[in-house]
Amino acid sequence: MPTTLTQSPAAAVLDRLFTAAWRDDLLDHPDLDFDTATAQERADALHDVYMPVSPRGGELLYSLVRTSRPGTVVEFGTSYGISTLYLAAAVTDNGFGHVYTTELSAAKVAAAGANLAEAGLAGVVTILPGDALRTLAEVAGPVDLVLLDGWKDLCLPVLRLLEPRLRPGALVVADDTTFASMAGYLAYVRDPANGYVSVDFPVADGMELSCWSPATAIQ
Length: 219
Known about the structure:
By secondary structure, the chain is of the alpha/beta class.
């Protein structure tokens, strides 16, 4: 069955963005010290680096949104909008829902907005520019689905910020879970005491799928 993902203009935009992303190389920024740089410094230095979700990861996101039919989707880490396009396409094909996504790089905010407009999906997405710990504090709940794909050391703080607004049964998806910097996040969502039922999913660089089930938390 045809979907927004398989039809132009969204399909053509994704093809173009993935082609550009495959040329990326973080080694082009040898002066950036991730251990000492602030989130803003990282965002500014890597404003031209796509850091996208994988194609298979994007297809998984699309399927998860189609299946769970969320009213409110929150994304941490817009970048050039590749993962946002998958989320927006699924919301569009569901016929309802809205995506709130946040990005620290002003250059990427502008690029993502242009990409969503080119794909015809800007109407179901709000891009929140700035620090996610501030911008996402303003998103009203309940939140039905979360994608965490920003700076890895901030994924857990962002999740904890959103937790009071998560609908019971909400799905939280974290990307790049094979990275060492995601160890603390994984320990948190895999601990039953914290109210999640969590499982890893084998796509490129790893994804963790966590269902918010506070009633099952171990007291």
